[in-house]
Amino acid sequence: MDEKSLIIYFVYYFVLSPIAKIFFVNIHYFISKKERDEYLIRMLIKWGNLCDFIHVAAAMYFLGFTKFTVEIESFSGLGWPFIVHWDIFTCVFLTFTTIIISVIGHFSLFYLHRDAYYHKFFSLYFVFHLAIKLIMLSSDTVFFFMGWELLGFSSVLLIAFYEHRSNPLKNAMRVLFIYEAGDIFLLALIALLTFLHTEDMARLVVLQEHGYAWAMVLLILACFFKSGIFPWTWLPRAMEGPTPSSAAFYGSLSTHIPVFILLRFWPCEWSLPAYWPEVWTISHPANAVVAAVVICAFSAFITTHMSRQHADAKNTIAYATMTQLAIIYIEIFFGLRMLALVHAVSHGIYRTFEFLRTPSLLHFYHTMETRLPRMTSTGKHFQRLLPEGLRTWLYALSIKEFGFFLRSFDFIDGFLGLKFLSFDGKTARRFAGIVAAVWVAFSVVMFLLDKNTFNVESVANARGDAITAFIVNWEYVNAKDEILLVLAVGFSVLTFCNIRRVVMFLVTLTCSAATIGIEHTLLLFRHLDASNQLYWIAITAIAVAFAGLAFYSIYSFASGTEGYTSYTARFSRSPLLNLLLFMAGLSIVGVPGLGIVLAWEYIIHYASMVVPLMVVKGFFILKVDTLLVFLFYFSNFLGFPEHKVQMLHHYKLDTLHLRWVQKHS
Prior knowledge:
Layout: H1 3-31, H2 39-62, E1 68-72, E2 82-86, H3 88-111, H4 118-137, H5 141-159, H6 166-195, H7 205-209, H8 216-227, H9 243-252, H10 257-265, H11 272-275, H12 286-309, H13 313-333, H14 337-365, H15 380-385, H16 388-399, H17 404-416, E3 422-423, H18 425-453, H19 456-463, H20 466-469, H21 479-497, H22 502-523, H23 531-558, E4 564-565, H24 575-589, H25 597-608, H26 612-637, H27 645-650, H28 655-664
Helix pairs in contact: 1-2, 1-4, 2-3, 3-4, 3-9, 3-14, 4-5, 5-6, 6-8, 6-17, 6-25, 6-26, 8-10, 9-14, 12-13, 12-16, 13-14, 18-21, 21-22, 21-23, 21-26, 22-23, 22-24, 22-25, 22-26, 24-26
């Protein structure tokens, strides 16, 4: 069997086997009459791990570190190519992730024994497995971005794993906000690559060939947001989930995936040693790399101090993880790729052991304050280098998370209404004001970016195809497109106002997503003579629908729907109904893995070939809608009910916890 056939087989196995496991776990959970049946899950994990080890060993033996590229046309009949760049980075990280996932899966079988959310954990665990394999193997923009988003969503849902408590739900929303902000930068890079007629993430050099070297900033920011480097040190807030998810997501895999992306996609020509002989100017692309190195050095400095001042075991490990990640990024930007590879893999293994050891450590000390009884002497050099006044000042800043980072989370809380436990008119007005201000600022940035750096004519000449021939003389700002997008933003505000009503929430959410889809579709028909009439028909119909829904929303909101307490599971009826409503909301916004995502992928793909910045603006609105879907699900279907039914259900077979609940209820 040749190398190409082997790669195709491995791709189908590593992608389709997690999908089959996801369906098996959920079907078994919802149709099984037994309240708890962990035996089948155990067999699935054990035999699945064995098969994964066999396939990884076969890949190492037959393929090794050989460097070659395979393109699978129309993967699984979806119509998109699956591009695989096999090299030493892909081989090493595929082996590393498979081993870590298998170890954590086996550990979770016993750690979560008799837990009411046992099936839920392994369902999300397999979604995470699928996301990792898509990112590891695919270099094409479509499947890679699917894996990137699925990785974030599964991570957020595992932070909110203990759904009967409000604090995990709030922290999950904070992390989701940061993930979605990073996704905007990555989608902007993908839209630009699509505009340049490139579907391979490994061909980032094409950006420099066409004069878009500044776009390297987009990939840097996307990776920093995902790893918690800048501007939010969110990793300690993700410790609300169970220990296995902390080990998998934040100790070894999820935070290290951006490192793998830079190792595989970041061109060697963009490292500092390659830029060093040149004369740098203010607009030189190397300045972005220098700024990234400075940010990583600053992040490593502050997280080092934070890890030394916190007594909680998980938070200490989380801050230490961010310190090492910042150092790994610096190694990549200096061109030390093999050193970064060894550092990332060894660090991921060590952090996984630390996180899995944490529960035993807490039991051994019988206290959460694990660092106070035995303070180490690793910080003695600070006493010799820094005066006492400066050390005291740094200590105070570390406790307060250096001020800026703590206040940035206050912005997220104010935006999503997480500061208060009730949903009222003040919260809705704050959301509308922040969305309007951010949208105006985002539109101004897009306008300046297009006018200063987006050379449509040069790209059209370079590509020489019919798609861009008719857009050379177009102006970027088109009033009709802007009106449609503003209406989509208005529907998003109405969606937030209707977050306590299921039907109206889904209706306004659908209107927001449909408006973006209509605007992107009309972009493709601008060259037709009837395009102007189509635009005004669409604007009129959508404006009338917006006016009607706005009037009804304001009337019903003012007639007594204010003041509902958040996180009370007031709409929760059954796990299956909750899941179906949640998936309905995710389908509307085009989350990967659901049917409607194919329609979104086609629309975004072909619209990016015409006006990519308009696609980015539409994607920005979709990310706001995605935040609202999760906020709707967390606020109405999860949380802590008034009579503690959910907590009693969660611990009803655990005698110790049941006694605790009965004593304190």
